[in-house]
Specification:
The chain has 106 residues and is mainly alpha-helical. It has one domain (3-105). It is built from seven helices and no strands. The chain has helices spanning 3-15, 17-23, 28-37, 44-62, 72-77, 82-90, 96-105. Helix 1 (3-15) crosses helix 2.
């Protein structure tokens, strides 16, 4: 199980609209289960660790907002499926090198 595998999954979903469409309606448990069938191996804990690091990077480094309820990023998730929010507003704000460096720091 691996945070790196979840980053690989996020990159795949970002780059493949059909894969994104397949996973978008799934909840966390379904996503983790079905991702294993597609060759990824991560847990819900891996998801939380990666998403937390990426969100913190967007809020603190990229937007230079305080890490609290006033952050612009938090408002972007409302009314959006969580995977779409992650891909469009979090992953999309990072280069591949930034994605890997954030995961490697953990």
């Amino acid at each position: 199980m691996s945070r790196k595998s979840f980053v690989e999954f996020l990159r795949a979903v970002r780059d493949d609209p059909a894969l994104r469409a397949r996973y978008d309606p799934r909840n966390l448990t379904q996503m983790v289960f079905h991702a294993r069938n597609d060759g990824f191996d991560f847990t819900a804990t891996d998801v939380a660790d990666v998403v937390g690091a990426l969100e913190a990077s967007v809020i603190v480094t990229k937007d230079r907002d305080p890490f609290d309820a006033t952050s612009r990023l938090w408002r972007r998730m409302w009314g959006t499926r969580h995977l779409a929010y992650l891909v469009d507003h979090v992953v999309g704000r990072h280069s591949d090198d930034e994605l890997w460096s954030l995961v490697d720091r953990q």
